[in-house]
Each structure stands twice: as C-alpha cells, then as structure tokens.
Write a structure and sequence with these properties.
49% of the residues lie in helices and 12% in strands. It has helices at 2-8, 16-19, 48-61, 78-89, 102-115, 133-146, 163-173, 187-199, 221-228, 234-244, 250-261, 267-279, 283-287, 293-296, 306-324, 328-331, and strands at 36-41, 66-71, 93-94, 120-125, 150-156, 178-182, 204-208, 216-218.
Length: 337
C-alpha cells in the first residue's frame, strides 16, 4: 500500500521531483490574505466548466467567498452552463454574450469580483478538441490579463497513459500548479491516468467522482489506494462528517445525542440526520470509505453503491418528503409507544 501511494504522490517519492525546492514550484492551494485568482485550463470535453463550479462550491463550504468568470468564447453554451451551475450553488458569476476576446472578459470579470470583495476568483477558459497552438496562445493571453495565483489543469481521467503527454504539454505552455482528474467514478479505470500524471511530478489536487456539485473529492494517495484495495478510508470518512457539520454545529450534535440518550428521538431529529447524511455526498461513496461495507452493498472497486446507492438515496428523499407534509406537532412527538 505504501509503495502504491508513493508512486501516485510525487511529493512522497525520493526522485528528482521531490528533491527540488518547494519554493520553485507553482502553488497548489489558494492562499488567504488577498483575492486569489485561479485559472482553469484544459481540453474541451474534460468537464472544465462543471469542475470550476465544483471547486467554487468546495471552497464556499470552507468559508471562502468565491466568484466565477466565464472566459470561454469558443464553446457555444459555456456561459449558460456556468451560469446555471453557479446559480444552483449560490455563487456570483461574470460573463458576456457579446464580447469575443477571452482576455478582455477575464480581466473585466476579475476586476468586478474584486470590487465585490470576493477572495477566490475562478476563471474558466476555452478548450479545444486537441492540443493546438491557438489554444496555448489564448491561455497565455488570459494569464497575462488576470495574473493568476494558481493555474489548474482539468483532464479527463479515463484517457489512461495518454495523460502524460497532455500534462507535459500544458505545463510547458503555462505554469500549471495542480491537476484535477474528472470522470473518476471508478478507481480502477483512473489508475493509468493517475500514474501518468504522477510521472510528470504534477500534484493532483482533486478527482471528480460524478456530475453533481458535491462530487469533487480531494485527492490523497493513501486514501485512494486504501479504497482501491478494499481497506476503506477512515480519514476521508471523518473529513466527510466534518464537512457536513455547519460552522458552530458541534453544540447541535451534542444536543441531538443527549436527546437520543434521553429517549426523545423525534421525526424532526431523524429529518435533520437525513439532511446531514445528504451533505456528506453520495451514499455509496461514503459507505465505500468504511472497510468491507462497500462490498456488502454491492459497490465493487469504485466505492459506489450502484443501484443500491440510488435506491437508498431515493428512499431517504421520499421519507423526507413525507415528513415535510406533517405538522410540527407530529414531527416533534417522541412518546409514540
């Protein structure tokens, strides 16, 4: 397990990549203290626009004030897609249906969001069907216009070993600080891409495990390998629980436990627990972090519950809908027997 984790995480290896000074590497995480600009690059079809919104949603939950800028003028509907996802997540956005110069749009968007005191500004750039010089020139122009603090390369995780050439080409064109692999619904399928990215010494920041806004998972080599080998991921499980608890919610959890211990478990408490479980993400992924439980649910290697996952989530939503239709008196009743 340690050997596989070291292979997938270049920072833990003893090769040339790990021996270089950290000061010479581009940043991997946004830094607080002043507005941070993160520029997303990648080929068309990798899920870049969706990943921008997932990334913004992830840091919004951690207390940041993100904003989104659509500088993709190449793909029709890119701005509409970003606007729809940003609205769903409650994140402000900027774009234009009329302007055609990506660098101009990006600069105007960053300036506007800075005026609104947004501390994490995410710029979505154009992609192409293949690596071509026009794409790289446009990336350089946008980078010069917004001076990003962090450049993130978004790549389709299902392409396997071809990932090596893509990462190498983009890192040569712009100062890529981190990589996000998308379409990683099954760990076995993404192993080749992970190994190829690791070979370029590019740090993998997140992996996308689905299409929903909360299906973006921070990549940690040991956790990933643990789930791949069926050993679970207790650290990831604890992190999911921590993310599901709102700020200052620890006192509320203690109150819930005290009521349960006193035999006062109500439908309202059950509703709140269902809501907290939904905030943790897809049920199959959460269960896949507990050793042996994913196999019992029929999740397989990927950690997802498949049909069982969807059926359980559907039952939970139906139960919540039933409780929504009840009166407050019924929801707070505890002496049923």
């Amino acid at each position: 397990m340690d050997g596989l984790a070291a292979m997938l995480d270049p920072s833990s290896s003893s090769g040339p990549a790990s021996s270089s000074s950290s000061s010479s590497r581009p940043p991997v995480e946004p830094k607080r203290g002043r507005p941070c600009v993160a520029m997303f690059v990648g080929l068309q079809g990798a899920g870049k626009t969706t990943t921008c919104c997932k990334y913004a949603n992830h840091y919004k939950k951690k207390g940041w004030s993100p904003g989104l800028v659509c500088a993709d003028t190449f793909r029709a509907g890119a701005f509409d897609q970003l606007k729809q996802n940003a609205t769903k997540a409650g994140i402000p956005f900027y774009g234009s249906y009329d302007a055609t110069d990506p660098a101009t749009i990006a600069a105007a968007g960053v300036a506007k969001l800075r005026e609104e005191r947004r501390d994490l500004i995410i710029v979505d750039t154009s992609g192409r069907h293949r690596q071509e010089e026009a794409l790289f020139e446009e990336m350089r122009a946008v980078a010069a216009a917004v001076a990003p603090d962090l450049v993130i390369f978004v790549m389709d995780g299902s392409i396997g070993q071809a990932a090596f050439d893509q990462v190498a080409a983009f890192r040569a064109a712009v100062d890529v600080g981190a990589v996000i692999l998308t379409k990683m619904d099954g760990h076995a399928r993404g192993g080749g891409a992970l190994a190829a990215v690791a070979a370029t010494a590019a740090p993998i920041a997140f992996i996308g495990t689905g299409e929903h806004l909360d299906e973006l998972e921070r990549f940690e080599a040991r956790s990933f390998v643990g789930r791949l080998l069926g050993r679970g991921d207790w650290k990831g499980f604890v992190d999911r629980i921590a993310d599901a608890v709102p700020p200052g919610g620890e006192a509320g959890m203690e109150a819930v436990l005290s009521q349960i211990q006193a035999g006062r478990f109500t439908l309202r408490l059950m509703y709140d627990q269902f809501a907290a479980l939904q905030r943790m993400g897809p049920l199959g992924q959460v269960m896949g972090m507990i050793p042996g439980l994913s196999a019992m649910m029929g999740g397989g290697e990927g950690g997802g519950g498949g049909g069982a996952d969807k059926a359980s989530a559907l039952k939970m939503r139906r139960s919540m809908a039933i409780m929504d239709s009840m009166t407050d008196e019924v929801r707070t009743k505890f002496d049923w027997f």
